[in-house]
Amino acid sequence: MQEVFNYIDGLFSPSVDGGHLENLNPATGEVISTIPRSLQADVEHAASAALRAQPAWNALSLEQRALWLDRIADALEEKHEHIAQSESLDTGKPIALARRVDAARSVDNFRFFAEFAREQTEMTFKMDDAMNYVHRNGLGVVGLITPWNLPLYLLSWKVAPALLMGNTVVAKPSELTPLTANILAETLHELNLPKGVFNLVHGLGPEVGQAILEHPGIKGISFTGGTATGRIVAATAAPMFKKLSLELGGKNATIILDDADLDIAVKGAVRAAFTNSGQVCLCGSRLLVQSSIADAFLPAFIAEVEAMNIGAPSDETSQISSIISREHLHKVESYIELALQEGGDILTGGTRAMTGPVGPDAHGAYLAPTVIGGLSHLSRCATEEIFGPVVTVHIFDTLEQATEMANATEYGLAGSIWTKDVAQGRALAQTIDTGIVWINTWLHRDLRTPFGGVKNSGVGREGGQWSLGFFSETTNICVIDPK
Ligand code: NDP
Q1: What are 360's strand-pairing partners?
Q2: Residues with beta carbon inside 6 Å of ligand 1?
Q3: Do 40 and 170 fall into the same domain?
């Protein structure tokens, strides 16, 4: 069994008071590692180390820090399989998905921001008698708090731009998925990243996470997680005037218009609903189908869902494996119960039944992909984030109804529209209160574009310039040259 340590000031160490937590493989229920149960004293050490390291790190040129990002990307790429295996073990997700999405994107995040830095030019504003130069500095020390669904993918999405812009980091991964954050720390250690530039503190959200939020030396918080936790983050950090980026929950609509290419739309809607067992903030967990295509679309959609291969994470053919924990399984199942009470019909799934060639462990948290019809679009199941392999289906007649249904939640993160008339799709996209809309695709990401939500899905954007802007402060230097 692996013993995972904090990484503070260039050293791997247990928590100050020696407390630890067990980390389970959700697919088997086995303990796979221990992690430190860190407390405020550990965060204090990490923040002090980061504060000491920041001036020298910030004094490097952008190009020097971009070179560090290149080295990190290369080193992580060499560990691609190790990262994928660890992520699959920690989250219960299929190994093929962990390779294709988690491991690959963690490398891409560092490589992208290194390249993006090289495209930057100094921003200037010329006046008749003066020149303005916009200088960007790191904020100082930033706190990065990330969830369990895409552990290294989301952590590296924050670490790369944070380091690039001259910040030093105190990071806390979810205590459910510490393994790949630890691989990142090991990698940075092997590369001899200056000590204190990256610090990793493991433990529980209300303990170590809260201590990061409250630390007066930490100037910015980039948080990805649930909306309820996001409220705590904002309530704690905003009165301290910390810079805040909040990437929160979603309840995204997949809208099928009657002129959609049926085959493309069916496959796209299944991918949007059930990738990572629906545990992606961008997942299309509400399927809105135009009435005139419903009779053709729904049977094809359900057949495609039923053809998904459910099996152990280590099985190369698995498309659906364990969800994150038994506790989460009970939460998702309680929503399926609620759907029945709200008058819904289970069109497929709703059980722990298996179809994969490798039988899942009895202690795992496997749930068949579930499709529920017959619910009002205003029901709790259709408006609250379930974050599991459950999609609700709703039928609409007009585009105005589609807009009204799509906007009928407190969330506004993402969505997709499926139509052959892309002008119509774009017009409809503009009526939806959301941060991202894909047309005839889903989770198709250009890392330069703004990423983030509206309403209770978050505040601020990350990606490209938005990440560089968040992780820096600008000083406008207005110069009159007397010569
Ligand atoms: P949580 O909000 O429970 O946790 C997110 C992180 O916050 C974890 O590291 C958690 O630690 C920590 N945390 C918990 N309480 C506190 C606190 N009081 N102070 C500081 N940190 C705290 O989310 P989940 O991990 O359950 O992740 C799922 C959620 O994340 C879903 O709602 C999903 O939509 C959202 N998400 C949003 C994305 C986006 O880009 N908008 C992307 C991916 C996910 P610990 O785990 O130890 O409790």
Answers
A1: none
A2: 145-149, 172, 174-176, 204-206, 209-210, 213, 224-226, 229, 232-233, 247-250, 281, 385, 387, 413, 453, 458
A3: yes
Query: Among 87, 207, 281, 283, which one carries the catalytic annotation?
Result: 281
What domain count does the chain have? 2
Q: Which of 87, 175, 247, 462 is catalytic?
A: 247
Interval 5-22: pLDDT, tens: 999 999 999 999 999 999
Q: 364: pLDDT confidence band, cut at 50, 70 and 90?
A: confident
Mark whether 312 and 166 lie in a shared domain.
no
Q: Are residues 325 and 382 in the same domain?
A: yes
Residue range 399-428, pLDDT digits in tens: 999 999 999 999 999 999 999 999 999 999
Task: Give all strands (DSSP E) within 368-471, no chain letters.
Answer: 370-373, 390-396, 411-412, 415-418, 438-439, 454-455, 458-459
pTM of the model: 0.97
What confidence score (pLDDT) does residue 357 get? Answer: 47
CA–centroid distance, 324 to ligand 1, in Å, is 13
CA 146 / ligand 1 centre spacing (Å): 6
Tell me, in angstroms, the distance from the centre of ligand 1 to residue 148's CA: 7
- Are 266 and 311 within one domain? yes
Find the CATH number of the domain harbouring 230. 3.40.605.10
Residue nearest to atom 48 of ligand 1 (CA): 205
Residue 483 in any domain: the answer is no
What are the Cα distances from residue 223, in Å, to 50, 145, 237, 253? 18, 5, 11, 24
Q: Is 281 a catalytic residue?
A: yes
Give residue 130 CA to ligand 1 midpoint distance, Å: 47
Please, are residues 211 and 202 in contact by the beta-carbon 8 Å criterion?
no
User: Is residue 452 in a domain?
Assistant: no
CB atoms within 10 A of CB 303: 12
Domain that holds residue 6: 2-248+457-478
For residues 134 and 476, the answer to whether their CB atoms sit within 8 Å is yes
Whether 332 maps to a domain, the answer reads yes
